[in-house]
Every structure is written in C-alpha cells, then in structure tokens.
Specification:
Chain A: It comes from Candidatus Kutchimonas denitrificans. The complex is a heterodimer of chains A (608) and B (224). Chain A is of the alpha+beta class. Chain A has helices at 23-32, 56-65, 124-135, 172-181, 190-196, 265-269, 278-281, 289-304, 310-339, 343-363, 385-407, 411-417, 425-431, 436-440, 447-450, 471-495, 513-518, 520-532, 572-578, 580-584, 591-598, 603-607; strands at residues 2-4, 36-41, 47-51, 71-78, 86-94, 99-107, 113-115, 138-140, 225-229, 241-247, 250-257, 372-373, 376-377, 463-465, 539-547, 550-558, 566-570. Chain A starts with a strand and ends with a helix. The relative contact order of chain A is 0.13. The chains are: A alpha+beta (608), B alpha/beta (224). At the A-B interface, helix 4, helix 10 and helix 22 of A face strand 1, helix 3, helix 4 and helix 7 of B. The complex binds iron/sulfur cluster. Iron/sulfur cluster is lined by residues 49-51, 87-88, 114-116, 121, 145-146 of chain B.
C-alpha cells in the first residue's frame, strides 16, 4: 500500500478562454481542419468539439495517442427531438493534464451510424451498447452490439428518443402479456446456446454399452459447459445474471446480462422538474443515497452558475463522506458473506444502523434521503446532529479494527482473495474501471483530488492505492478509504461555519414562510417557484463526483425550460461491471463470486 | 368424547378419560395445521432494489425476523412458503418472478414490499410492472418507500393472521393448475385498470384476486 497526497493547484491552462483557445483544441483544429465542425463552450467553460461523424475514430485515436486523453468517461446520446440530428457524446479525460474534453458527433436519426471506439478504449464496449439500446445508434465494428438494458427482442423502439412516450408504445396489458410470453431460455445469446448444445458426441469407444445410451443425452466429454447464475441469486447482489462458459472449473468466458432492474430513470427525469429529480437520484444508488443527491444538485448548480453557502458546502462534505462509509460497510459485510465469513456482516450492520439513525434524524428517511435541494439542503441539520456524527466517527473505527482483525490476517480470506481477479493499471484505465477498483490497480485517480468539488482540496486526506489490483487490494483500499473518510469528517466538523444553509436567491430556493405570508414579493417568489419551477439557463455540463463506487458523472442538458432535456447518469458500477468478464477470465468458478463481490456493484445504478 | 355412564364397557371409558389430560390434545384440524404453517413461514426473498436493503436490515441483528419463525431465508423457491417481493420489478424481470412463484409449492403466500412492487411507485415508465399483482396473487401489501423493518415485520404478522383464518376445506386460495403457469394473474382489462394513474392504489382489493377466507384482523386487535 502506498499513497499520494497531491492536492496542489490544478493547472487548467489560462482559466476561462474563448472557443478554440485551449491549446490542445487549437492543435486539434489545425490537424483535422474541416473535420472539426465547430467548437463551443459549455456551462463550465469547457470545450465541446463537434466532429465529422465519418472521421470519429481517427480523431479519437489522435486524442488518445497524441494528447493524452487516456480515459473514456462516457459515451452517450442526446436527442433534441423534431427530427434534429442525434448527438453522440464522448466524454474524455486526460489524467496527466487533468483536463476534460467533450467530443460530439451528429448523426441523422433515420440512420444513425458511427464507427466504434472499442478499439481505442475498451470502456466503450458497454457504453456504446447502451447508446444503441437507448438511441438506436449503430456502432460499426462493435464486437457485440446487442441491446443491453431492454430485452433483446424489445420491439417498442429506442426509449430515450424524444418521440418515444414515457409509458412505452404498447398498452400495459400488451406489455405484460409480452413479458410473460417470453421464454426464459430465449434470453441466452445465440453463441451461448451454441455452446450448450454443441454436438460433441463421437463414435462409441468400445465399452460395449453404447446401445443403452440414449442419443439425446449430452456427452459427459462435452468440452465446455454453460452455467447460469441469477438473475435471482443471493450472491449476485441484486438482479444480475451471469452466464458462464466453463471448461471443467475454469472460466472460459463470462457474460453478464443486466437490465433486470431497468427503471427508466433517465427518461423519467426528462418529465420532472429539476428539483423533482432529486428523489429519483437516491433510488439509483440506495447504498450511498446522499452522494447521488448532492452530486446531482452540484451539477444543476453548475448549470445555474450558483455557488452554495459555506455552511452548506461543509455539511455536504460530511454527508457524502458518511455515505461513503455507509456504502463500504455494506460492501464489506456482503462480500465477507459471499466468501464464507458471516460475522463481519453482523458487525457492519450494527454500524450501518447507526448511520441509518443519523439519516433519519436529519431527513426523516432511513435510506431514501433526498437530502439536497438545488441551492442548498432540504433543511439545516437538526440540533445535536453534528455531535451525533462526531460520536459516531469517534467510536466507529473500533468496529473497523475488529473487522480488520477478523479478515486481514485470516488465512481463508487471504487464500480466497489474493491473486484473484487481477487487472493491471494500464488496462484498468483503458477499460474504464473506476473508484476503489481502479485505485487498487495502482492508478491514483480520485475525483476529489483530480478535479475537486466542494473544496475538497482544502481537506487533508490520502488516497490509498493498491499494488496488485486483486480482490485483496480492493478490500484494503476500501478499508483505508473508510479511515480517510473519518479523517475528512473530523476536519469538516471542526470547521462547520455558522450562517444560512441555503442560498438567498428567490429564483432557486423557496423564501421562508414568514416572508411568504407577510410580504407580496415573498408570495410572488413562492408562487413562481412552485407553479413554474426552477428555470435553468440553456446549456449543458458534465459534473463528476467521487461516489463510493467510483466516478459518478452527471451530464445535464437544459434548454432553458423548467425540465431537463437530458439527464445522463454515468454510474460507476456500470463501468466496473463491464469489466467483470476480463477480471474473471481464467479463474475458477468459485472465484467469480469473490470477484463480483469485490468490485462493489449496485444494480439500481447499473440498470438505472 | 361423550361421557359413558350407561356404557357397559365402563372400565374402558374411564381409562380413556384419564388418559386425555395426560397425552391428548383435542383441536380442530384447521387450527392445528394453521398453527404449524404460521409458526414456520420460510421466506423466499425476491429482493431487487432499495427495498431489499431494508429487507436485509430486517433479517440482520437489530430487527431479527427469525423471532417470528422466519428463521431460514429460503433461497430456493422449492423450499419456501412466502415470497417477499421487495423492490422494483421491470418487465424484463417479470417472467423470472412468475417462474419463481410457479416453482413454489403450495401452500404459499406472497408479500409485496414497498410502493414499487405494489403499484409501480413513482416509476410509471416504459419498463416497470405497475404492481406485481398483475403477475402473481398478492396477500399483503406493505406500503412505504422503503417500508421500515417494523412495517415489514408487521406485514409478515398479517400474513400469519391471514393463515389463522384459512380453512382446510376451502380450496380456493390454493387453487392452481398447470394451465396457470407463466400466465398473468389478471385479465388484460384489469391490467389496464390497475396500471392507470393511481389505479393500483385504488383498485387493489378489487382485483388482487385473492379473497380472504375470513376478515383479517390487525395483529394488535386480536382477542385471545
Ligand atoms: S418502493 Fe421505494 S425504496 Fe422500495 S424499491 Fe421502490 S423506490 Fe426503492
């Protein structure tokens, strides 16, 4: 284990610049000339480069190789409706220079086609499948372009297109009928079915009993076998389905099937006002709800160009770090159960119950907190709450030590985790592994350090990094992260300033009731906000925060109206899950449970 | 057993009468069977989303639902009595849920935990089942988003209460045949009815298909 403490100032070039002035963008323009169609700035003054769709791979390759954009953070679509072109958005990150770049290619909705970026970043694999599933964009050359969230034979269309109705095209009765008429065996891919029924029967081997063997029984010497795990299985941490091709006990290929919990959050968000989206966000990652609540609010505030109050910033940091602990605790409990140790689950759930109580004291809900509002929080913290948090972080490390004593030196635990599910640094970066998993592979990328928000640069904490990138390292990294979160909360508690929790801006936050009842302008402000909703200026932004599972990105687009045009949640679990096949390849079948547990997924956010 | 004063075989009668207090219990068969069923409900946790985390909390140390005879979480449907559907059910998941229900042997009960499972909740979208009672029969709905562990426990107690009122002779709650396998629970018209806005919260009793065989008492109301 080693760690970095790089919280020095981040060189972003010359601050806000005019379009095309950022050096790398200027270079791009000279190099590709007319293939760079235009360059704009988004709400955060970051460049958006529109490129010719037929040259996308060429340009992306150049960006990766020559300009150091080594991470593909997102590939998604954006449909404005009305027959306007569908925009395919690539969100890049250069980790050396700590710079983001958004590249967009516009394709006609009638025949949206692009070359795949899979050859450049393996991270594009699932992201492009999702863009295909939701927008119908076909990526030529993609190795496995199937629907990913919707059933493979889904016939109603592409859900995130603007002409697709919120409730689908068919009636509910028809949707129910179709769902139940689907044969469960149909949802194997053709390739898997081919393996399962492969004709391997050869001539009888002179045992003299050949006549008795019915011909339809598969031969025991059949080379590979298909094993289906899930979608309703206690060790998959939700409704995940893994189809594994086995050679004896060795995994030849693992195919995750997701989408069994697809809820349509992104579509639904387009039908809700900006503040109404907040209760949806905590239902995505219910293991760390406040991180989602606050991350979303931060994104919208970026679009609004709004700065929250100093008190709010510190309270938000406390909430987010508390939820990091909250999520890591359930991770350690369930992972230990999966590997055969039951006791840590009971210990960590005790601690979780204490955080539940803190949640409840603040928000009234144990899990679906909806704690943030755009421009502040739902309320100021109740009296005594901060002391309760302090008591928690003073006593909580004891449990952590106990759990560590149970596991860190435990021979079974070490045997099951060390050297299992290994991924190296370069591959992990390219394939979009994120969060503690990426750091366990030795890449010191943490949004809190690399692109700080909420003044994280002013807190003193370390980012733990692993050496081997195996299951054991992921465990160590998370244990250390909990300790660092305790450190951050300690510092935050010491500096909670007095003052208002919400911004004083009648366009954003409801005025206090005393003003609403006693003054006409207060009444008007209240009425306008309730009836018309919050107006967010036209524009778009990408905002990422470090959630407990990795980089959580919000790509928000507004057209100036009361509702979002697009709310894209780039969930870290989705990216981590897409790497499971690479992590378990060649391992034993029992390890699939350990590896799957170790990457810490939450299905609500994978499937959204 | 009638008292046998005039019975010629008086000696035998006396023996039986003295035996009864020591070795025998006389009870209605219904009571006995229901008592046994009630006291060993094994749940089949069908947890999908956020509600499943609260279900885990219910099973963990603080709330400990094993106290009520739910000692064993049956991860295989073939050895389970009550299916706890906790969380959102997408259409992609619906056939899986129905199959698990079909695989559970009778007698079986179903509890729908949370707003999403019961009505689709806030997610009236293209992918969500608008109430699992369109797919499987539901005995108890637990409201909440998510329901607190106490609420889930209360819901399970209500299932126990419901079992108390069931009769051996009444086959209706247990009627099930091979032709029902993988079929929706409701007719297309009823699916439309409950899927309309607010539908499932207003029509639940009417369409959930299972009449209770006796009025359900709340656990606190029991007079005994
Ligand atoms: S009812 Fe609420 S808590 Fe339960 S699954 Fe639905 S959204 Fe999640």
């Amino acid at each position: 284990m080693s760690s970095t403490t790089t919280s020095d100032n981040i060189d972003k070039g010359a601050g806000p610049v005019a379009p095309g002035e950022r050096q790398d963008v200027a270079q791009l323009k000279t190099k590709f000339g007319p293939a760079i169609r235009s360059i704009e700035l988004d709400a955060a003054d970051e460049p958006v480069v529109y490129i010719a769709p037929d040259r996308n791979t060429e340009i992306l390759q150049y960006l990766r190789d020559e300009q150091g954009y080594d991470m593909l953070r997102d590939v998604t679509g954006l449909d404005w409706g009305g027959g306007r072109p569908i925009q395919v958005v690539y969100e890049l990150w250069a980790s050396e220079r700590r710079l983001p770049l958004r590249v967009k290619a516009e394709v006609p909705p009638s025949n949206p086609r692009l070359q795949t970026a899979f050859g450049i970043w393996h991270a594009a694999n699932w992201l492009e499948r999702e863009a295909y599933d939701m927008f119908g964009v076909k990526f030529d050359g993609h190795p496995d372009l199937r629907r990913i969230l919707m059933p493979e034979n889904y016939e109603e269309g592409y859900p995130l297109r603007k002409d697709f109705p919120l409730r689908g095209r068919f009636t509910r009765a028809e949707q129910t009928r179709r769902a139940l008429a689907r044969d469960l065996e149909d949802i194997y891919s053709l390739e898997e079915l081919a393996v399962a029924s492969r004709e391997t029967r050869t001539a009888p081997r002179g045992l003299g009993v050949t006549a008795e063997i019915p011909t339809d029984v598969p031969d025991l010497e059949a080379k590979h076998m298909i094993l289906n795990i899930g979608p309703q299985h206690p060790a998959t941490h939700g409704v995940l389905r893994l189809v594994v091709e086995l050679d004896g006990e060795t995994i030849v290929k693992c195919t995750p099937h997701i989408g069994y919990l697809h809820t349509g959050f992104e579509k639904l968000s387009e039908y809700r006002t900006w503040n109404q989206v907040i209760p949806l966000t905590d239902r995505m990652d219910y293991l760390a709800p406040m991180i989602y609540n606050i991350g979303y609010a931060l994104g919208v505030e970026k679009l609004l160009g709004l700065e929250v109050t100093p008190r709010c910033k510190v309270i938000r940091v406390i909430c987010m770090e508390l939820n990091r602990i909250f999520s890591h605790l359930i991770w350690i409990g369930t992972t230990a159960i999966d590997i055969g140790a039951f006791t840590p689950f009971l210990y960590t759930f005790e601690e979780r119950e204490r955080i539940y109580n803190l949640h409840e004291a603040y928000t009234g809900a144990r899990m679906t907190t909806s704690v943030s509002r755009i421009g502040g929080m739902m309320a100021d913290v109740p009296p005594g709450w901060l002391d309760a948090v302090r008591y928690f972080i003073e006593t909580f490390p004891n449990t952590l030590d106990e759990v560590e004593r149970l596991l860190s030196q435990n021979a079974i635990w070490i045997g099951r985790t060390q050297g299992v599910g290994v991924m190296g640094a370069a591959e992990a970066t390219n394939a979009g592994l994120c969060g503690p998993n990426l750091r366990a592979s030795g890449v010191p990328y943490d949004v809190r350090k690399d692109n700080p928000y909420l003044e994280y640069e002013t807190y003193d904490f370390d980012v733990p990094i692993g050496e081997y990138g195996d299951v054991y390292d992921r465990y160590l990294v998370r244990m250390e992260e909990m300790r660092q979160s305790v450190r951050i909360i300690e510092q935050a508690l010491d500096r909670v300033p007095d003052g208002p929790i919400n911004v004083k801006d009648d366009r954003v936050i409801l005025p206090p009731k005393s003003r609403v009842m006693n003054s006409i302008d207060g009444m008007i402000a209240h009425f306008k906000l309730v009836m018309e909703g919050l107006k967010v200026p036209a524009g778009e932004t990408w905002y990422s925060v470090e959630s407990s599972k990795g980089e959580l990105g919000f790509y928000l687009v507004s057209d100036g109206g009361p509702k979002p045009v697009r709310c894209r949640y780039r969930g870290p679990s989705f990216m981590n899950m897409s790497n499971l096949p690479a992590l378990v390849k060649g391992e034993l079948v029992a390890d699939i449970i350990a590896v799957n547990a170790s990457i810490d997924i939450v299905l609500g956010e994978i499937d959204r | 057993m009638a008292k046998g004063d005039q019975d010629p075989g008086g000696a035998g009668t006396t023996r039986v009468e003295t035996e009864i207090p020591r070795n025998w219990i006389i009870a209605r068969l219904d009571d006995l069977v229901n008592w046994a069923r009630r006291g060993s409900l094994w749940p089949m946790p069908f947890g999908t989303a956020c509600c499943a985390i609260e279900m885990m909390a219910t099973a963990a140390s603080k709330y400990d639902m094993a106290r009520y005879g739910m000692e064993r979480m049956g991860y295989t449907p073939r050895q389970a009595d009550v299916m706890l559907v906790a969380g959102r059910v997408a259409y992609k998941m619906a056939p899986v849920m129905r199959r698990i229900w079909d695989q559970m042997p009778q007698p079986k009960w179903c509890l729908s935990m949370g707003a999403c499972a019961s009505t689709g909740g806030v997610f009236d979208t293209y992918t969500m089942v608008q109430g699992i009672d369109t797919i499987v029969p539901v005995d108890v709905y637990v409201p909440g988003c998510p329901p607190r562990p106490e609420q889930l426990l209360y819901g399970l107690l209500m299932i126990q209460e419901k079992i108390r009122g069931e009769s051996f002779k009444d086959p209706r709650p247990r009627a099930e045949g091979p032709e029902d396998v993988a079929k929706p629970q409701l007719s297309p018209e009823d699916v439309e009815l409950v899927a309309s806005p607010f539908g499932n919260s207003t029509f639940q009793n009417r369409v959930s298909g299972l009449e209770s065989s006796s009025p359900i008492l709340r656990p606190g109301d029991r007079k005994e």
